[in-house]
Amino acid sequence: MSSELFVLFLLLWFRVESARATNGNETLPGCQPKCGNVIIPYPFGIGAKCSIDSWANINCNTTFDPPKPFIGDYEVVQLSQTEVRIKNFVAVSCYNQSGNLTDQVFTSMSLVGTPYTFSSTKNIVTVLGCDTMVLTRGSNTLNYSSGCISICDTKENVIDGTCSGIGCCETSIPKGLQEFYALVGTIYYHTKVWSFDSCGYAFLGEQNMYSFKASDFTNSSHLTDIPLVLNFAVGNQTCKQAKQNSTAFACKDNSYCYDSVDHTGYLCSCNEGYEGNPYLKQGCQDVNECNNNPCKGICTNTQGGYSCSCPDDSYGDGTKEGTGCTKRNKKIPVIQLTLAGIVNEGKTEQVHAVAELAKRCLNFKGEERPSMKEVAAELEGLRGFEKHASVQKVNEESRTRESESVDLYAIPSGVYSVDSSSGQYSLEKKMMRSMNAPR
Length: 439
Ligand SMILES: *[C@@H]1O[C@H](CO)[C@@H](O)[C@H](O)[C@H]1NC(C)=O
Ligand SMILES: *[C@@H]1O[C@H](CO)[C@@H](O)[C@H](O)[C@H]1NC(C)=O
Ligand SMILES: *[C@@H]1O[C@H](CO)[C@@H](O)[C@H](O)[C@H]1NC(C)=O
Ligand SMILES: *[C@@H]1O[C@H](CO)[C@@H](O)[C@H](O)[C@H]1NC(C)=O
Ligand SMILES: *[C@@H]1O[C@H](CO)[C@@H](O)[C@H](O)[C@H]1NC(C)=O
Ligand SMILES: *[C@@H]1O[C@H](CO)[C@@H](O)[C@H](O)[C@H]1NC(C)=O
Ligand SMILES: *[C@@H]1O[C@H](CO)[C@@H](O)[C@H](O)[C@H]1NC(C)=O
Ligand SMILES: *[C@@H]1O[C@H](CO)[C@@H](O)[C@H](O)[C@H]1NC(C)=O
What we know:
Radius of gyration: 36 Å
Structural class: alpha+beta
Strand order of the largest sheet: 3-4-5-6-7-18-11
Protein name: Wall-associated receptor kinase
Bound molecules: 2-acetamido-2-deoxy-beta-D-glucopyranose
Organism: Thalictrum thalictroides
Largest sheet: 7 strands, mixed
Mean pLDDT: 77
Pfam families: GUB_WAK_bind
Oligomer: single chain
Shape: globular
Keywords: Disulfide bond, EGF-like domain, Kinase, Receptor, Repeat, Signal, Transferase
Subcellular location: Membrane
Number of strands: 30
Distance between the termini: 54 Å
């Protein structure tokens, strides 16, 4: 097979491979893959037959256009293999100029009885307002209460983008929380700041997704766009317990099990070298690592991995970290100069003469290259060298070395392995560097 044909073959093969690769978005066969704009991957599904359990059953409400997915009362924004993002609920308290409460919404969310928890690492409670204090509470196995106070006198004091207690404050939630409650209160009933801030707000939502702006005091509509991250688990057992019943075990081919961060159960993930949906039979498919060649030479994809090799006309292990691939040249043998000893003081001209000779040895065209005998004779002519070195001619066809001893000279020690394309340059370079280096 000619090399062009071979490359073409590889390209076509890669294309077929990548088309088969999966992205973890699959549903059970015959199930609706999307609700509106939201992708519904198994273990989630629309309807009892399409989901792993009732907690993962998505209610796709088609009275909305586009349809909206819900889990219980919570609108789903995104489903992934590790997390669920839902729409948050903003708690609000608003006052009129004389300090009377005109509007109040408090937040009360419960995930008790489900494998969901509020992610304590990804979510934070954000409070907005210039006369606002918020009390947050949670319970299930743990009872917690917390809060923060945000105060400011004038609009000018408020710095957009920084949430540090002036117009905006933040407080975190504990790990494993399943119930959350927030109530927005006030100290002076907004009477001192009413001209620019008549309301206080609080919401639990994804960290770093919100950037504070004073203009949000009067226009809070987009606060609900910050999603709330929920962790989940597929079973309420640990991996160790779950593995004991293989029919009920949720982790399928080429996947492994891990306990959920909040210790509510276990989750599955594809093994290294595989990607796709670990909850489906044959959901985890081999990754074709060769698609962006990790090798220096030829990449061969294998189940769960890959291997590197070199084309026929070169040798090495084919890897980037290892020996890579070095081209064998059938016509021009690689010449290795093994040089030993140290340059005598004031012999720079001789070194240059040797370098010049070496350069000719590396000449592309065979005819212009001196024979080993000529080299020997020429070196003989360069007197004043006491130390020894040898020139080795490496026969690449058989990869054996026939050494020819040559009377040589003294220049910095080291072995310079060069090939016909780059050797000349690197040889000179290395010599110069060694010569200039202090001893
Ligand atoms: C699901 O598909 C979308 C679009 O095809 C892609 O952006 C997303 O990364 C996929 N999700 C996973 C988990 O592979
Ligand atoms: C869909 O949403 C509408 C409006 O919120 C609601 O009245 C209706 O009961 C929902 N339908 C289902 C099947 O949940
Ligand atoms: C504020 O609300 C109270 C109670 O509803 C009302 O009596 C009062 O007139 C209102 N003040 C203003 C300035 O609107
Ligand atoms: C609310 O308004 C009433 C009059 O309608 C007033 O007596 C009362 O003090 C006001 N409350 C606050 C907290 O300002
Ligand atoms: C949490 O609070 C509830 C009611 O206030 C109480 O019954 C329960 O014992 C508390 N749990 C813990 C762990 O303190
Ligand atoms: C409120 O903010 C949103 C987005 O920041 C913007 O699209 C909308 O026009 C604003 N509404 C008002 C009344 O300013
Ligand atoms: C675990 O889940 C099973 C089935 O979903 C349920 O019957 C059982 O009560 C759950 N156990 C606990 C401790 O929640
Ligand atoms: C294993 O799980 C299946 C399906 O949930 C159940 O029917 C079966 O009784 C379980 N077996 C044992 C030994 O617990």
